[in-house]
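Worked problem 6 (solution included).
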Amino acid sequence: MDPIRLANGFPEFRTKTSIRQKIIAPFVLIVIGAAALILWISITLIDQYTESQFKAHLELNRSVIRENIDERLKKTGFYAQFAADMKKSVSKIGQKRSEDEIQAITLQILNQDNTHVYWDMSDLSDAQKEKYAALIQAGKQGRQFVDLQLRNDSGRLVPVAVGVGSDKRENQYFPVIAEYELGSRALDELKSRLNLDMALVFRGEIENRPMSVFLGGTDLFMLSQELQHQVKDAVARTPEGMTRPIELSAEDSVQEYRLWIEPMPINSNILLVTVIPAAELQTAKRQIILVTIGILAAVLILIITIYTVIVRHITRSLEALSDGARQVAQGDFEHQVEVQSTDEIGGLAVAFNEMVDQVKKSTSTVIAEKNRTESIIASLPAAIIVTDRDNRLLLANQFAEKLFHFSLEDG
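Solution. The predicted structure is:
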């Protein structure tokens, strides 16, 4: 709706408000309406931009997580081969005590990086031998191999990075197994670098039954059983053979979360779950929106202030003309309006001053003619009386006053 037409619909606004208000009010309404539209568009664009930037940042962090896990897998394979090479070198010493000491020092060094090494296959349990059969076979063939497996610790599934190396003696390869537990501790180490909560969930068959099992996660997951159950349920709903991350939502008694679920490249049955509190995204959006509102408000105030100053300058010139017209109407023909500009208002002031000069000249001429006429009538030897159409007395000479016994001075 046109604010000017709206304003014209109110008689009081048209008749009782100043011209300054009539000019400023519609402009303010238009500017506020335009600002509201711009703000709405800005919020929509900010929402889309923040979401895209947030996802891009998250994807970058997820890629770093995947790279770290992949690096950890490679390091486990390296440790396995390192232990195999040490075993081969130590065997050449020929002293059992020295061999045992060097072996103990090597295991201690690797244990500091949470890596457990099995020098001999006899150190493995029957379950481990069965689980790592493919790895052991690769080691016997002199191949390095890395896998992401699940280890059953007293009924608790634990994700482990498993690497195999081998040392060759007498034309025979002897495998060495290295394990790294990729559980909550490892994920906490990643979080300390990325400030991102994550978890690992298994989805597959256990004893011929489809299941989803929570394997481990950062403190956010470990302290919330409710969030663990929701993550497991979300994983159970993800389609088989997924290749791209899936975004889901979850919540606990504290807040809502955004989840990104994706399979691990080396074992698609183990899924990486990355989680971010929804409040973080809302906070980022809110901060940008508040900054936008502040900038828009500042620009709006600046525009209205500049417009008000311009209107005030115009209306002051009009007020000066109005005041000059009143003084001229009261007979002050010497009054001149000050010309402050060369625009239309300045031209109007010049025209007004010229008009006053013309009125002054015309008035002087009329007064001079009146005085001349009065002098002529007063000097005539006959009685002369001048009236208007309503027979009101306008002028009479002394002969008429004496003849009819009245006086103009007495009314």
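Discussion: The CA atoms of residues 324 and 330 lie 10 Å apart.
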